[in-house]
Design a protein that fits this description.
Alpha-galactosidase A; single chain; binds magnesium ion; Transferase(Phosphotransferase), domain 1; six-stranded mixed sheet; binds adenosine-5'-diphosphate; five-stranded mixed sheet; Phosphorylase Kinase, domain 1; alpha+beta; Kinase-like_dom_sf
């Protein structure tokens, strides 16, 4: 029998160690397993460091399960699997785009944010961006965002939507074209205002217009991150969004930018 290979794809660890830790793992390069580890079992340093955690995990039970919980008790001080089950995890819907790509067909590269990765695939000539729910409770963000991409499709406002990402047949996220560019400074205000106006003409309010959600590229300004966008004819909301733009472009904080804390993945 081949040895089992386990890869930790994503993790969400409480740095204080008070709440459970969550992992998305890939076993033998094909089976996705979502594993919860009860608090207090392992040191936070081990929980945050995949190589050391993998050495300490109890052996994975065999079978077709996809969700499991590792626990410990006074009677059983050695960590053990207290639960394993095959659960029907949520899927993004409704869908509007015809194409889907299996997560396993993608080469996931550099992490830009917790849920945003540079990626590549033989099916695409250029680098792409993969944005997906690492855990089931994140699916709802991408239900909104994938829907918003249908509203702007063909309007040259955002990156091209390339299709969905699937895992075990369910839709967990999407692929968009990678836009080579930089985030704006206040000197880009007129161009940023213009693209926001074009969004508003489609009766869409973005609702998260920080400067990290604009990319200044060769083809002009591109707007990204439509998680909170809504269809609305509320002129006040649109006016406020436009008026707040200058302050957003002047803002030097990293809100909305690349995560600096590499420990919490
Ligand atoms: N299509 C893209 N092309 C290039 N960079 C991107 C693209 N999409 C996202 N990014 C980069 O990743 C960051 C996070 O993406 P974003 O969609 O804003 O996620 P979040 O919801 O976490 O803010 C952006 O600020 C940007 O730097
Ligand atoms: Mg963003």
């Amino acid at each position: 029998m081949q040895p089992t290979t386990i890869e930790i794809l994503n993790q969400e660890v409480d740095p204080d160690g008070d709440t459970p830790s969550y992992y998305r793992m890939l076993v033998n390069k094909k089976d996705f397993k979502y594993i919860t580890i009860d608090p207090g079992i392992y040191e936070v340093d081990d929980l945050c460091f995949p190589a050391s955690l993998l050495e300490k995990l109890p052996p994975l039970p065999s079978g077709n399960w996809n969700c499991g919980r590792i626990s410990q008790s006074v009677e059983n001080p050695t960590p053990f699997f207290a639960e394993i089950a095959r659960k029907a995890l949520p899927s993004i819907s409704p869908l509007w785009h015809p194409k889907s790509y299996d997560y396993l067909s993608l080469k996931i590269g550099k992490r830009l944010r917790s849920n945003v990765y540079l990626a590549s695939s033989l099916q695409f000539e250029k680098p792409i961006i993969a944005k997906f729910a690492r855990f089931d409770w994140e699916i709802r963000y991408y239900v909104s965002e994938t829907g918003a991409y249908s509203w702007i499709d063909g309007h040259n406002i955002g990156p091209e939507f390339l299709g969905y990402i699937t895992e075990d047949g369910r839709v967990i996220g999407f692929l968009i074209e990678y836009i080579e560019g930089r985030h704006p400074t206040v000197s880009d205000l007129p161009a940023c205002r213009a693209i926001v106006r074009r969004l508003h003409e489609l009766n869409i309010v973005h609702r998260d217009l920080n400067k990290h959600n604009f990319l200044i590229s060769k083809r002009g300004v591109v707007l990204i991150d439509f998680e909170t966008a809504v269809q609305s004819k509320n002129c006040d909301g649109m006016k406020k969004e436009l008026e707040g733009l200058e302050r957003q472009l002047l803002d030097e904080s990293v809100n909305g930018g690349i995560h600096r804390d590499e420990k919490i993945i």
